[in-house]
User: Which sequence fits this backbone?
């Protein structure tokens, strides 16, 4: 099924994979083969663990259901915060919830820094005006 907004195919995601960081992994289906090559249907489930991961920006440990593939991606990219912001697989569920918290916190920190810079500039202007010799 093609999405009218995106030029790529949209893949079905199970409810289970929406509740954690699954890095694009999901339940796959195939056949179990006996010695006589008799085929019976089976599931290939992703390797999922419950982990507490540290967010530097939020300064807290967050509990996620995460696949080993996602853990490797988090290590490779450079941390949970970078993964949540950069990954195309974080589109719903708890990952999206914490991604929104992260973005809001980054915006707040930027506003605080901007305010501090304005205060510094005003202080420098006042100092400059005080040090000018009177003519």
Assistant:
């Amino acid at each position: 099924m093609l999405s009218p907004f995106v030029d790529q195919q949209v893949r079905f995601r199970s409810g289970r994979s929406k509740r954690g960081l699954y890095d694009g992994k999901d339940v796959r289906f195939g056949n179990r083969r006996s010695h006589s090559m008799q085929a019976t249907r089976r599931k290939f489930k992703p390797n999922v663990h419950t982990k507490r991961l540290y967010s530097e920006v939020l300064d807290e440990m967050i509990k996620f259901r995460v696949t080993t593939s996602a853990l490797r991606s988090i290590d490779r990219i450079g941390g949970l915060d970078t993964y949540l912001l950069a990954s195309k697989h974080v589109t719903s569920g708890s990952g999206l919830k914490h991604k929104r918290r992260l973005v809001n916190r980054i915006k707040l920190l930027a506003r605080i820094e901007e305010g501090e810079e304005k205060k510094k500039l005003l202080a420098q202007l006042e100092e400059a005006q005080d040090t000018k010799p009177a003519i």
